[in-house]
Amino acid sequence: MAGKLSSEEKRTKLARAAMNVIWRDGYHAATIQAVANEAGLPAGGVFYRFPRKHDLARAALETIQGEFAPLLASIAPDGSVRERVAKFFDYLDAMTPRRVRHGCPLARLMIDLPPDADFDDARAIGQSVFDDLVDWLATQFVAAGMVSTKAETEGRRIIVRWQGAIILAHAMNDRAILDDEIEDLRQTAQQLL
């Protein structure tokens, strides 16, 4: 029998559940009860830790950020630039089935966030995740000798194309769209190096 969860473990479990529910159902359709059910915890615990729905959105974005930052740091830190970039695209490949099924959790939440000021801090977290992806790629290109402004532009182009392919693959329920785009992006990145 598992022991009781600490308060922080419950919060983490609820934040992950919020991310999954919002990814699956969208922010506007997500409910406190759905988050509680996903986490396997009472709804009262959701209200206690996240008194407002936008607190759940922020927690979901923090969860995404908490996964991406260490992942980017762990990509072949001792490898060559080519090896790091190849592993980055391996990671994108590994995410493909869920992206085709559900779209991108970060993009889904960012699109669903209401435009009012209550969501500015949450929006900033999501934007920083996209910035981190672009910056990571730009850093690789700079390490290979590219000028920093061009490196940032190329990093942004890769993320834009990947996100666009996720949207189309999800809308068409066609994995080949995303597989083809990731392979083309992989080749493009290697040529840029």
Brief summary:
The protein is mostly helical.
Task: Name a few traits of the molecule.
193 residues; mainly alpha; Tetracycline Repressor, domain 2; 9 helices; HTH tetR-type domain-containing protein; Homeodomain-like_sf; Tet_transcr_reg_TetR-rel_C_sf; DNA binding; DNA-binding
CATH class reads Mainly Alpha
Question: How do the helices and strands follow one another from N- to C-terminus?
Answer: HHHHHHHHH
How much helix is in the residues?
over 70%
Quote the beta fraction: under 5%
How would you state the average pLDDT, rounded?
90
Our Rg estimate from Cα atoms comes to 18 Å
Task: Describe the structure in your own words.
The protein has helices spanning 7-25, 32-39, 43-49, 53-74, 81-102, 105-112, 120-143, 148-172, 175-192. The protein is mainly alpha-helical and 193 residues long. The chain has one domain: Tetracycline Repressor, domain 2.
